[in-house]
Amino acid sequence: GVDGWLARRLGQCSRFGAWLDWGWLVSAVEWCVFVCNHSARGAHWKNSFTGSPRFIQAIMANGLRTPLGTWVVSGLHGLPLWLYGCQRGLLSRWLYLPAWGQVLGTLLLAAGRLLALSVEMVHMDTRLPRQRRGAGRE
């Protein structure tokens, strides 16, 4: 955006600024999902997906305690840590993980994160109030 262009032009680039470019979006999605879940269902939010598409039901089955649910939660919470470990060389130094293993891990966790995002989007779509079609028209 304009802010990024201006920051580069004025030599004001930083890691924090780079995070702000996308980090705010991720945080906003997570907070919206949190509010939608807990305002609608409270502590029983994991059991409120019976009317959702089948793939969402499969992910949410047994309170995310399935292989698919584990993959999604791993992508949601593990991907940022994994990327940090890749960036800092921790996975190769401490775990002796070869480059192909790091790429494979990144792809698997990113796919899990995308599945989590799809659940979040569907859930927000069904929970947020919608404007009635034709309201106010005569």
Automatic annotation (TrEMBL):
Which residue positions does the secretion signal occupy?
1-28
Q: Has UniProt tagged this entry with the keyword Membrane?
A: yes
Question: In the UniProt record, does the keyword Transmembrane helix occur?
Answer: yes
- Transmembrane segment boundaries: 64-83, 103-123
Superkingdom, taxonomy of origin:
Eukaryota
Keyword entries, A-Z: Membrane, Signal, Transmembrane, Transmembrane helix
Q: What is this protein called?
A: Uncharacterized protein
Q: Which organism is it from?
A: Mola mola
- Supply the source organism's classification: Eukaryota, Metazoa, Chordata, Craniata, Vertebrata
